[in-house]
């Protein structure tokens, strides 16, 4: 979605030593932000998200507990509109730009300029957020629709052996055939250098990884064809090789959208013990499950319908499995939106929690503007602790919270 520019990149670190950190010259800087900003993260009712993941302490106009980060994702070149978010996992090799616990964020739009800018499908950067909130640019590519480069999407993941995978969907903004191009997947090494550009995709919009260190399955949703594919890859110390590509699902609605550029299959979450890949189909406004996704040799029509909830789903985008075994999806508000004034159970920019058998648990609005909720990432820290990162692409930030459901 097209969003306003943010002129000053800021980070609020709750309980930061000294309260305010002086901005550095080479990054986006730190400072404590107005506490009223927290009030936009509101949970209504008995919200399972808040109860188990983000313990908001007031049902109306909630207050986050101390210890969270609210981090600007603006890149050093001004790229904005964050889409994907991913944690660098434990076991990632040391001695590079990245360390376990770092967070990566992909930017879909370019910078605002005096003549315009902030154009969808033109962003070329991945922002790194360290655990203390310090930011830097991990990767900066190029925008060139003729080579199908630019427009970094929600398709963002990290391989434990030392590689980052990111999808591109460039927007050709001039010429005889304007609009989105098929794009590619970029495989970057631990220092942000390109090692493989994989082009056998058709609008890689999101991805999730079943990682076994020296080999992995990368599930990719193609927004320009309404399909989901599984890429089987081998992972060496310095190279990733795609050994097989299998379409495992098709038939998802897709197409251009005035608010969201394109809509189609987006969020993916893989339940490894059950061998089920969950798919958030934005245009269908439903969540599906693909059985035996890691072993399938043929394509199913969408898979099994898991969650169909026109009250709480408004164009679901990202998808993530929670530590308690439920699912979270972000609502992009491009589909099935009730015009204001909305009822209390239909808020903008919501994160919705539901069970794998399709029962609604709770909802959490992260911004008063529609279309702000996008990428979601959850990473285990210990048996009882995890971290969650939520993208707010209205104000170009991520909210990061350490979770302890039993605490």
Write the layout of secondary structure elements.
Blueprint: E1 11-13, E2 42-43, H1 48-52, E3 69-72, E4 80-87, E5 103-109, E6 112-113, E7 116-117, E8 125-129, E9 135-140, E10 152-159, E11 163-168, E12 171-172, E13 179-180, E14 184-189, E15 194-198, E16 204-211, E17 215-222, E18 227-235, E19 240-250, E20 255-257, E21 261-263, E22 265-271, E23 276-281, E24 286-291, E25 300-301, E26 304-307, E27 316-321, E28 327-331, E29 350-354, E30 360-365, E31 373-382, E32 385-392, E33 397-403
Describe the structure.
The two termini are 37 Å apart. 1% of the residues lie in helices and 45% in strands. The chain has a 5-stranded antiparallel β-sheet, with no helix packed on it. A 5-stranded antiparallel β-sheet has the order 2-30-29-28-27. The chain has one helix spanning 48-52, and strands at residues 11-13, 42-43, 69-72, 80-87, 103-109, 112-113, 116-117, 125-129, 135-140, 152-159, 163-168, 171-172, 179-180, 184-189, 194-198, 204-211, 215-222, 227-235, 240-250, 255-257, 261-263, 265-271, 276-281, 286-291, 300-301, 304-307, 316-321, 327-331, 350-354, 360-365, 373-382, 385-392, 397-403. It has 1 helix and 33 strands. The relative contact order is 0.14. β16 (204-211) and β17 form a beta hairpin. It is globular. The model is unreliable at 1-66 (pLDDT under 50). It has a single domain, classed as Neuraminidase (6 Propeller), CATH 2.120.10. The chain is an all-beta fold and 407 residues long.
């Amino acid at each position: 979605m097209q969003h306003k520019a943010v002129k000053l990149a800021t980070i609020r670190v709750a309980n930061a030593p000294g309260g305010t950190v002086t901005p550095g010259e080479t990054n986006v800087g730190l400072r404590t932000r107005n506490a009223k900003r927290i009030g936009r993260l509101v949970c209504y009712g008995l919200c399972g998200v808040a109860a188990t993941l983000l313990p908001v302490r007031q049902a109306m106009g909630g207050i986050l507990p101390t210890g969270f980060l609210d981090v600007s994702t603006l890149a050093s070149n001004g790229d904005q509109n964050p889409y994907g978010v991913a944690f660098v996992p434990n076991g990632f090799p040391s001695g590079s730009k990245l360390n376990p616990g770092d967070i990566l964020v992909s930017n879909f739009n370019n910078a605002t300029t005096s003549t315009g800018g902030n154009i969808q499908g033109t962003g070329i950067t991945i922002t790194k957020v360290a655990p203390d909130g310090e930011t830097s640019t991990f990767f900066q590519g190029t925008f060139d629709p003729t080579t199908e480069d630019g427009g970094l999407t929600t398709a963002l993941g990290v391989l434990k052996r030392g590689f980052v995978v990111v999808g591109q969907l460039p927007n050709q903004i001039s010429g005889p055939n304007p609009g989105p191009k098929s794009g590619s997947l970029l495989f970057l090494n631990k220092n942000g250098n390109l090692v493989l550009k994989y082009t056998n995709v058709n609008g890689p919009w999101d991805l999730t990884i079943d990682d076994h260190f020296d080999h992995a399955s990368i599930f990719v949703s193609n927004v320009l064809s309404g399909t989901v594919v599984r890429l089987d890859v081998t992972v060496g110390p310095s190279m990733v090789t795609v050994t097989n590509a299998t379409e495992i699902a098709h038939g998802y609605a897709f197409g251009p959208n005035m608010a969201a550029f394109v809509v189609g299959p987006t969020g993916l979450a893989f339940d490894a013990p059950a061998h089920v890949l969950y798919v958030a189909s934005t245009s269908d406004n439903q969540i599906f499950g693909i059985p035996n996704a890691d072993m399938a040799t043929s394509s199913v029509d969408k898979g099994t319908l898991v969650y169909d909830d026109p009250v709480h789903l408004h164009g679901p985008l990202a998808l993530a499995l929670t530590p308690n075994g439920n699912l979270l999806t972000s609502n992009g508000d491009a589909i099935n939106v009730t015009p204001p004034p909305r009822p209390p159970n239909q808020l903008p920019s919501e994160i919705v929690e539901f069970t794998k058998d399709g029962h609604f648990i709770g909802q959490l609005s992260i911004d008063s503007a529609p279309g702000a909720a996008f990428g979601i990432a959850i990473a285990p820290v210990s048996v009882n602790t995890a971290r969650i990162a939520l993208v707010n692409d209205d104000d170009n930030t991520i909210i990061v919270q350490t979770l302890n459901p039993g605490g």
